[in-house]
DNA sequence: AAAATTAGTTGCTTTTGTCAACTAGTTATA
DNA sequence: TATAACTAGTTGACAAAAGCAACTAATTTT
C-alpha cells in the first residue's frame, strides 16, 4: 500500500473529527444530521420525491416516510400528489422550512467563522484554494465548464503567471529548458513596452482565481495583428476553453478591422495547431530550426479577415 | 457572511458525502464508525483509559463502557487496572484487535485507492499536499515550519512564478501598478542574459510545491554582489523563512569571496528592511523617487564581508 | 477526616435505523 | 387488454445506537 493512501486516510480521520458530524443533534437544533440533510436536499432541488431522496442519501424508505410525516406535521414541507405518477408526491419546503434551514445555515457559518478567525485573508484564500483542489481531484467529472471565467484586463501578477505557465507547461510537455522561459520573458517585455490598450489585448481563462489558459493579440504595422501566447493548462484541455479564447481574439481583430492575423508556432504543438486550422488559419511558411535543445519546424499561419 | 465560509460549507458537504461515514456499518464490517474510532484511538496511543476516550471522541461514558464490555467479550481488548488509579483501567488492543484493525485499514486503503486510481502521480502529490495545507490551516499550529522546503536550481516555470509573486504581492500590499511587474520582468531578463551558475544564484522556499519566498545573489564587477528579489508571501511571514533565505544568500557570498553585498530597496518595505538590518546591512544612500504611481525613497544598503 | 470529585458500571429511556408486509398505482408482456 | 411484475410510499415490529441519571469505589481537596 502506498503512502499516498495512508496520508489520505490520516486526513480523512482528521476531517471526520473536524466536521464534528457524529453527534446526534446537528448544531444543537432539535434535528438530527439525517433530517437536516433531507431538508437540504429539498432546498437544493426545489421539488423532489421521497424516492429520489432515499437514492441520494441512501436512506430506508420506511424511515424516510416517518421523518417526512413529522416534517409535514411541523409544517416544514408540503406534499403534492405528482400528476405523472399518482403514487408519488412532489415535496417542497414551506416558508418556515426554508426559514429553519437559513437559521441553521447561519449557525453553521458562524461555527466555521470561529474556526478560521485566526487566519489572515491570504491564509483563508489558500485554505479555500486547497479545498477546491482536493474536491476537483476527487470528483469524477473534474472541472465544470461553468466554473471557468474569462477576462481581459491585465492585473498585477498576471503576466508573471502567464510566463510561469509557459515555462512550466512547455518544460513538462516538450522538455524545453529554462532558455525558453527566458525567451518568453523577452517577448512579454517587448509587448509591454509597445502595449496599446486600443490595439492589443490578452484574454485569460481562470479557474479558482488561477489562470489556466490565455491568448493575446498584438498589433503590427500594415493593419496586421499577431496572435501570441496561446496556451492551455493540460488539465483544462477539451473543455472548449481554447476555442472560446481564439474566438474572442479573432472577434477582436475583426472589430479593430485588422486585415490579417498571423501566428508563429512550431510543428510540435499538434493540439494548438489543430485549433488554429479549425479557426481558418492556413500554413504560409515553414522552416527548420534548432532551439531550446530541440529540432523542429517553425511555422507561420495566416488568417485573412477582409476580402 | 463572507463567501469564504460558504465555500468551506460547500466543501464540508462535499467531503461528508465523500467520506461516506454516515452509514451504520463501517466498510461492511459488523462494527459502527464509533466503535472503529474507539479501536483506532486505542491503537494510536498503545494504552489508554476509558475516560480519555470519552474526552477525545466526545462519547457518553455509559455508552462507551458497554462497547468496551463487548470488545472485551470478543477478545479485541485487554483491561489492566491502573497502578496509579485503582478506579481506572489501562486498555489496549489484543493481537486479534490489532488484526481486525489492520484488515479494516486495508479495506479502507483499497477504497481510497479506487477513488484516486485515475490520478497521475503528480496529481496525487498535489492532492496530498492540498490536504496537508487544509489540515495545517485548520489546526492551531497553522503552517508547519518543517513543511517548507528550500532549493536553488532554476527549473522551468520558476522565474515566471517569481515575477508573478512580485506583481501580485506588491500590487496587493503597496498598490503598485502592472508597470512594476514590467520592471521586474526587465530585471529578470537582464539577469538571465548575464546569468553565470558560478557566481549567481536564486534561492526559493516552497510550500506544497509552490514558491512562497525567494532571494537572489547577482554578481557585479569589482568582487561585489547584489542581493535582489527578496520576497515572502505574506501568509508565510514570521516563520523564519526570510532569515533562512538571507543567511543562505550571504553564506554564498562569503563562499564566493565577494567583498561587498549591496541591495536596492524602498523605504516602504519595512518588514524586509528590518531583516536586512538584522543581517548587518547598513544604509549607504537614500533618494526620493516617483514610480509605479507612488512617491518613496529608494535606498541602498551595503554589507561588507571581508575586512 | 469529611466533603467533593472522578472513573467506570448499570438500569432505564429515547432516538435512530432496519426489515418485511402491505396498499395502490405504473409498466412490461404476451 | 388482461395479467404479471414492478415501484412509491406507508405501517408495524424490532434492533441498534445513544443519552441520562443513579450508583460504587477510589482519589483529591479542604
UniProtKB/TrEMBL annotation, chains A, B:
Domain HTH marR-type, residue spans: 1-136
GO molecular function, one term: N-acetyltransferase activity
Domain of life: Bacteria
One Pfam family linked to the record: MarR
SMART domains in the cross-refs: HTH_MARR
Keyword annotations of the record: Transferase
Domain named N-acetyltransferase: residues: 148-304
Presence of the UniProt keyword Calcium in the record: no
Lineage, uppermost ranks: Bacteria, Pseudomonadati, Bacteroidota, Flavobacteriia, Flavobacteriales
Organism of derivation: Flavobacterium nitrogenifigens
Protein's UniProt name: Transcriptional regulator, MarR family with acetyltransferase activity
Amino acid at each position: 500500500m502506498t503512502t499516498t493512501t495512508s496520508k489520505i486516510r490520516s486526513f480523512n480521520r482528521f476531517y471526520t473529527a473536524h466536521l464534528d458530524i457524529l453527534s446526534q443533534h446537528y448544531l444543537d437544533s432539535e434535528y438530527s444530521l439525517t433530517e437536516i440533510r433531507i431538508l437540504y436536499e429539498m432546498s437544493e432541488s426545489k421539488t423532489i420525491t421521497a424516492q429520489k431522496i432515499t437514492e441520494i442519501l441512501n436512506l430506508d424508505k420506511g424511515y424516510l416516510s416517518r421523518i417526512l410525516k413529522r416534517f409535514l406535521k411541523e409544517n416544514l414541507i408540503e406534499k403534492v400528489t405528482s400528476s405523472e405518477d399518482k403514487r408519488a408526491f412532489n415535496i417542497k419546503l414551506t416558508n418556515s422550512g426554508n426559514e429553519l434551514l437559513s437559521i441553521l445555515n447561519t449557525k453553521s457559518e458562524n461555527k466555521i467563522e470561529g474556526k478560521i478567525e485566526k487566519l489572515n485573508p491570504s491564509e483563508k484564500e489558500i485554505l479555500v484554494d486547497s479545498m477546491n483542489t482536493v474536491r476537483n481531484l476527487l470528483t469524477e467529472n473534474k472541472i465544470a465548464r461553468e466554473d471557468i471565467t474569462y477576462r481581459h484586463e491585465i492585473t498585477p501578477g498576471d503576466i508573471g503567471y502567464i510566463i510561469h505557465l509557459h515555462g512550466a507547461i512547455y518544460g513538462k510537455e516538450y522538455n524545453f529548458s529554462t532558455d525558453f522561459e527566458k525567451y518568453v520573458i523577452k517577448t512579454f517585455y517587448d509587448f509591454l513596452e509597445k502595449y496599446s490598450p486600443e490595439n492589443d489585448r490578452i484574454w485569460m481563462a481562470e479557474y479558482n482565481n488561477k489562470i489556466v489558459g490565455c491568448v493575446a493579440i498584438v498589433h503590427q504595422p500594415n493593419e496586421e495583428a499577431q496572435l501570441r501566447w496561446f496556451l492551455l493548462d493540460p488539465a483544462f484541455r477539451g473543455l472548449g476553453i481554447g476555442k472560446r479564447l481564439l474566438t474572442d481574439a479573432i472577434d477582436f481583430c475583426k472589430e479593430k478591422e485588422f486585415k490579417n492575423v498571423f501566428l508563429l508556432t512550431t510543428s510540435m504543438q499538434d493540439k494548438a495547431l489543430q485549433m488554429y486550422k479549425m479557426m481558418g488559419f492556413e500554413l504560409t511558411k515553414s522552416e527548420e530550426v534548432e532551439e531550446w535543445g530541440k529540432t523542429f519546424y517553425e511555422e507561420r499561419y495566416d488568417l485573412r479577415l477582409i476580402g
